Amino acid sequence: MKIALLGGTGPQGCGLALRWALAGVDVVVGSRQEEKGQRIADELAQRMGDAPGSITGTSNAKAVAEAEEFVVLATPFAGHRPTLESLKEALKGKILVDVVVPLAEGNAKKFAPPPEGSATEEAQAILGDEQSVVGAIHNISAHVLDQVDQPINCDVLMCGNQKEAKDRATELIERLGVKVYNAGLAVSARAIEHMTAILIRLNGSKATPFRHAGLKIWPENEA
User: Fold this and answer.
1) Distance (Å, rounded) from C-alpha 172 to C-alpha 191?
2) Residues in CB range of 151: below 8 A, 6 or more apart
3) Is this model's pTM higher than 0.85 or not?
């Protein structure tokens, strides 16, 4: 399996690239500058050891072209709309896994959604109703993703309007060693993405004894 990871040069993208490669997925890291994509991919490859997957780097457009089925978008929110608009035609026939969270510029503790209500819904609006868009992996910190010798300490809430796309994306995401829960249609992203800002606030608070917590779904205790 070969996937494209746009925004794979950032902290979150780098962690995802490493973890997927270690799980046997071939990852093509995309960047606005092809040279940067290649450089980051080379740096990540030095951390892979004998991983069964590979990491290569190129431009965003070339990465999308190389992806067999999945394109993962992990850019900062400022690049969300421009990236999608520039790649709209190229993304047809692929499943977009949108990891982006709209946080206020200069204040990551504040959720600042677009008019559509969430990044996932903005992606669906830009690409059209026929495009497969899945929102997921919003609530895992870049720090946790980067600690590839440790398991991820939380679950993943997924949303989207196409059930088949969510089912397929679940298989990919669970390769990270996490449990994925279907949280409903794309509108659910408003709550899921907002939770990232809340987690950032909690993780940065002097009143909490932790720094990189995520979400975990627990079954009801049975007497």
Assistant:
1) 23
2) 177
3) yes
